[in-house]
Amino acid sequence: MEGCVLVRYGEIALKSDQTRKWWNKTLLENMKDCLEKNNISYSSITVVLGRLIVYTENTRKASIALKNVFGITSLSPAIKMEADFEKIKEKSLELSQDKGKKFRVSARRITKDFSMNSNEVNEVLGAYLKEKLDLEVSLLNYDFEMGVEFLEGYAYLFTERIEAYGGLPLGVQGEAICLVSSGIDSPVAAWLLMKRGCKVDLMHFKITEEGYQKYLKIKENLQKFSYGHEIKDYIIDGVPYLSTTKQKLCEKGKEKWVCIFCKRRFLKEAERVCKEKGYLAIITGENLGQVASQTLKNLTVLDSTVKIPVLRPVLTYDKNEIVEMARTINTYQISKEKEPKCPFTPNYPMTAGSIEELESIERMLWE
Ligand code: ATP
Ligand code: MG
Fold first, then answer.
1. Is domain 175-366 annotated with CATH 2.40.10.340?
2. CATH number, domain 2-163
3. Confidence (pTM)
């Protein structure tokens, strides 16, 4: 008998042989990085049909750490044993002690080499445990689940299933750069692209020291989901550009354009770094209609700034949905901390800018 973690994955299984091999390999590397960074020792990780199995003494600690590795759908701290039904009964009895009154057995044959089918195991093992421990079978509303998975001649027994985030292994979808502020939305935007397999690096414009300190803590939390990739960041002092630009806009009576100029500057800088370093896209935390300036018109004006794709993964989410995700990734508490308001924001920001007007203001400013 051996302690291990059963790792289940989702979409990888649907891919062609070649893609699956590559994605599995990436997932495996990311898992190793996660275990190493969390100081969890393990003897090996094997890739078997539809599962990855991590051999470790610290099955629970490993499962909790690995939850943050994208591509994984769920994990179970488990015991690997010979697929001998009498021994399975004995071990299940031991594992089911003090786990509650209502239970169900969930057997699954991943490979079909065990002589009983899953229904038979559910029934016979269920009846055995019910009688021995005076339990009650409840398929929907149970205190614990006695899981048994059969795989290549072995049985894996577990009573816990930890749900993970799914997505794709980080790294299989290239690299992008995310404009991250100290607010709630952009960290979630970065996380969502990481979840879909992108390696994400960050760019922050430092406008206030407080905002920058919050950003640093956000980055640290995002790193906890970026196994296989050390997040790089680009910090730019936003004050010189914004002071000069705001002053010039005020002189021309166009103060309300400050935010658009500011966001365009962000995008231009990000595009420059993308071209230089080979990132494929820019990510932002913009949403539709969340703040006065986030109109479809303004977003169009912003898009005209750069030739590289601008991805806005939280565009369509309601605020409470974004907050929920921010809580999950532990950035909400940080983003919510008080900080001084941006000193450059005008009282009435432009809500319906047009590209023509923007271009004429630009000409006016720099003539
Ligand atoms: P967030 O919650 O991410 O701050 P927001 O709803 O406050 O977003 P805006 O202030 O309009 O929206 O900013 C839009 C986007 O511009 C942000 O989501 C982020 O991607 C980027 N951004 C804003 N401020 C900064 C900054 N100081 N450094 C880098 N990017 C920024
Ligand atoms: Mg903001």
1. no
2. 3.30.2130.30
3. 0.94
